[in-house]
């Protein structure tokens, strides 16, 4: 069921963009703000306490910082696609390998905590839907062949379930569960905080965004 939810979330987002061709960026920004707050709150409420309870705090802190640095490094190649920005040339016709590889690493890591933290799947799913919509808009508006755009989205959809599969079935994932999870926490902290900072454009007060951010935090707390 977890695999199906994650795959369908991405594929249906692509189908929605292909059929509807959405242009309302305001609603998409609200969804991004909600997803950032929801993912950040789940990370703080669920993932952080679990890793600090079971290991040396300084070691965990090192891996969290490494996760933040890893995500910053990946964004040199993805140009910020993980938090809703695709700054690539629309005129290019080649398969965007650098974008795909950076997103694949990010998505693969996302799947690791799902096996032991059930509720985190909802944070990842709600995070992936607006990202998949933004990626789909870029791919369909670029000069990349449709078959390559579909291939990109299908492979992207499979990466997080693959990470979950590796975590559940391979010994190395169980042996290094805590450092890997701490690494993922760093990735989540960076992604979610960047989304929240960017949702407050020009530091102007926006009641709707504040309300969806509060809603994301409250729902995460209840879960």
What does the model show?
There is one protein chain. The chain has one domain (2-17, 27-222). The chain is globular. 78% of the residues lie in helices and 0% in strands. The longest helix has 30 residues, at 25-54. The two termini are 18 Å apart. The chain has helices at residues 2-20, 25-54, 57-78, 97-110, 120-141, 146-169, 171-175, 177-199, 207-222. The chain has nine helices and no strands. The chain is mostly helical.
List its salient traits.
mainly alpha, 9 helices
Shape: globular
Query: Strand percentage, roughly?
Result: under 5%
* Number of structurally distinct domains: 1
Q: What helical percentage do the residues reach? A: over 70%
| Average of pLDDT | 86
The value of Rg in angstroms is 17 Å
**C-alpha end-to-end distance:** 18 Å
Compute the number of strand runs.
Answer: 0
Oligomer: single chain
Write the H/E string, N to C. HHHHHHHHH
Unreliably modeled segments: none
């Amino acid at each position: 069921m977890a695999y199906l939810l994650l795959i369908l979330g991405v594929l249906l987002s692509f189908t929605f963009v292909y059929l509807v061709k959405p242009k309302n960026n305001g609603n998409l920004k609200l969804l991004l703000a909600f997803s950032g707050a929801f993912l950040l709150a789940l990370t703080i409420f669920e993932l952080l306490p679990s890793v600090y309870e079971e290991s040396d705090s300084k070691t965990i802190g090192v891996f969290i910082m490494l996760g933040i640095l890893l995500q910053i490094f990946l964004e040199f190649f993805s140009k910020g696609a993980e938090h809703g920005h695709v700054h690539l040339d629309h005129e290019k016709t080649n398969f965007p390998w650098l974008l795909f590889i950076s997103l694949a690493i990010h998505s693969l890591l996302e799947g690791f905590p799902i096996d032991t933290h059930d509720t985190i799947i909802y944070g990842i799913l709600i995070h992936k839907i607006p990202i998949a919509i933004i990626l789909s808009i870029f791919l369909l508006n670029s000069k990349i062949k449709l078959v390559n755009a579909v291939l990109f989205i299908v492979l992207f959809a499979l990466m997080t379930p693959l990470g979950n599969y590796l975590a559940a079935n391979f010994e190395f994932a169980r042996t290094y569960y805590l450092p890997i999870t701490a690494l993922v926490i760093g990735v989540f902290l960076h992604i979610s905080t960047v989304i929240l900072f960017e949702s407050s454009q020009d530091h102007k007060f926006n009641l709707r965004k504040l309300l969806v951010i509060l809603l994301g935090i409250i729902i995460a707390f209840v879960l």
